[in-house]
Each structure stands twice: as C-alpha cells, then as structure tokens.
Amino acid sequence: MAFILEYRGVFRTVSRSGPIIRNVPLPRVFIACALALSAAAAPPAAATSDFLADTTARAGAGWGIVSRFEQSPYRGGGVRIDLMPLYLYEGEHVYLHSYRAGLKFDFGSDKRAAAFLSHRFESFPVERVPASLAGMSTRVPETDFGLSYEQRFDWGNVFGEVLRDVSGNSGGTEWRLGAAPSWRRGRLMLAPYLMLSARDARLNDYYYGVSASEAAANRPAYRPGAGVNGSVGLNARYDLTGTWHFFAGVSATLWASGVRKSPIVEDRTQLAAYGGLAYEFTPTPVKDDRVPLSFKVLHGRSSPCNLLPIMELRCRSISTDDRTSVDSFEVGRPFIESPHGWPVMIAWYAGLLRHEERGLQPDFWQLNGYLKAFYWGFPWSGRVRTRIGFGGGFSYAQRVPFVEARDQALRGRNTSKLLQYADPTIDVSVGDLFGAKELRETYFGLGASHRSGIFGMAQIFDNVNGGSNFIYTYVEWRM
Fold it and tell me: 305 and 315 in contact (C-beta within 8 Å)?
C-alpha cells in the first residue's frame, strides 16, 4: 500500500497566540505524522499527490487531525506549523478528503481516473510577515480543478496529474508525475516516493515573483517563470488496531532554479514533516436496498455567546444589534446505527444555508458538510427519546458573514469564506411527546451553527482566529 503525502505548498504562519519557530534549523529527521484512516483490509491506496486516497474502506468514514511542520520557502519565514482536521468519506465514485473532493472511476483493479477540486497550500504568512515580504500584496491560497490517472504494478504505483487554478488567483497550471514503491511488514508500512512537478510561469510568478510596484531597494522586480520541482519523501503507517492508525512522514523539495533565485525565496532544499492519529468508522451493514435519509429545517439568529457557554446552556442570548439570521435545509444519511445495541448513531449531513443580512450586506448562501454523532442513552429515553448530538466538518460561504467580518475587523484579524463547522444539538422525539408512533423518528430541538478557524492554527482556514455563532431551533424527520 503506497501513500503520497506531499504538500509542496506554503503553510501560513500561525496567529500571535500560536507557536512559531523562526530562523531555527530543522532537525535532520522529523518525527511527525499525517493522519489518515485505513483498515488492514482496505484496498491498496492510490498513488497520487492526495495522501488520503483510498485510506478508508469503501463507504467508510472517519475523523482525525494532522499536524505539519515545514521550512518556509520565503526569506525569514522560519518554520511553519499547521493543523488540519480530517473528515473523510470514501464512496464508490464520490470521495471527500478534507482538502480535496471529487469523482473517481476504477478500470479494473490496477487503473483509476479522477476529477477533483483541491485546496492549494501556498500563501504568504497571515501574521508576523517577514521583512522580505513587507509591503507586498498578499498571495492567498487557491482552489485547483484537477484530473489524475493512476497505474498500479506489482512493485508499486505511478501517477500523473494536471491541476488548474479555478479561483482566479494565479490562473496557473501544474503537471505532476510520480512513482511510489511500498513495503509492508506486519502492521508497519513504508512507502518512499519521488515526484516531479512542472509549473507554468503564472503559478510561480504569483507566489514567488515581485511586481514592479512591489520592488524595493533590497527587493528588485523579479519573475521566476516556469520551472520543474523535484520532491522525495518517505511515508510510514502503523496500524495500532483495526480502527486506530498512526502515520508519519518526511519530505524534501528542490524548487526550480527560477524560484530559488527570487529575492523573496531562500535558496535551499525545503524540508517538511507531518503526523497524527485517526479513527475509522465501520459502516453498519445495510439490511435492505432502501437508503434511509434524514431531513432537517432550521431557523436561527446570531448570538454574541461563545460556543462552549451555548453548549452548557449558560448563554442563550440572540439579542444583537445586527439581528442577522439564518435558514437552512439539510439532508443526512446514517451509516452507523446502534452498533452492538448501543444508543449511538453517526451520520453524514449536507446543508444549504441562507444568510439574511438585514441590509448590512447582500444576503448569500452557505454550504455545510459534516459528520455527526448522536447519543440517546438517558434513563428517561424509553419514555421520551432525548438525543444530544455533535457534528464537525466544513462550511463554505459565498460571502464572509457580517458578524464575522465585523468582529474580526475589531480584533485586527483576517477572515475566510471556508471555515471549520460545528453543530451541537439537543432534541426530543415529537412522537414520544404526543404519543404518536408514526412521529417517533421526528425530532424538535435546539442547536448552534458555529464557524471558526481552530484558533488560527489551520492554514486550510486561512489561519483565521475567530468565527460566529447562530442559535437555532429545528425539526428533523426520517423518510
């Protein structure tokens, strides 16, 4: 089984409250980890630059977190530290891997093609900007549309990819070609790899060039142009149990000479490491061909309360000057129900949420996708089923919500359309309350719609430190 864990991009500097190591040489070998979820019985992982490819069993899902350490390519950038939450789903043709989602098509057991959208981990630091970048326009992460093809052999795998910016930042294109043999001994898997990356001028110029208007006495105007990068690395995985997995890896990237000669780039081989731990959920066997679906409608108002006081019911205020509100419709699909007879359920949810901004800015849509766990094993649940739930995933908004933009501006912090999403709830069975058996799987409850950036530690969320909360009421039913 081969894993390609190769973030060649730039992770943003963490916020002022977060850790950062500046101008310190990296140790020769990193003990770090990249998290992924895979069972020993899972099919061999695909060898692409997506290190989470095929890391869960088909129809499987899981939660985890990955930590990464990387030498910044920018002069004076020091060492970047990044956290990334993992939310994984591996369907037959559809997949979600935290920073990448798309469609995949298998042609036999040894060939695969895929089309996907992927977050590019390259950008300027958000805070503590090094002197080499002072006064320059901020370069931000972009979203790429990609196509990939993989071929598996007895000795390992080879792959090719092409990625094109579709977010309108660089407008650049990148071609990748890689190979990865692998060895397994018991619970331990080792996978060295080699990858070449050909980037066009627009991509390199955006992240590593200096425009004429940004030129300074010690920073002349410069365009690195097109070039080829080379990366080598070693990934390791150890299966602690059938569901808990530990990953670690190291890599080294030699940038094209045009990039290394840039006045804002350190001329050196860039080292990186990563690591973590994760848990895989095994789906409940399907009893019939019918796919159970849950539907949920909600209405909420913005709250000045923080998430923890809301969850503890110590703060329930929706009295705000902005009076902004949200309405949403969600669809959920359970994939683990009452394992071993326990009062537990885990389900996937996708929701389309509408922000009503009360004239403060145009109204807009928000897309939420998350994994949610429920528990109802309370002493009174036999009479009135009461569920508590907590969901975690991603939220992408067409605009930054007014309350987020206002609060972040007051703190002098940045914002992001993509943030971590949390959905704590408590509800009761309407059927149990009114003695109607046909409504037992209909629930009425309270919840919080929460967006945040994990305290500025996650580059995938633009190192945002802050967010927003909306307290809502809802009805959920199963069909």
Answer: yes
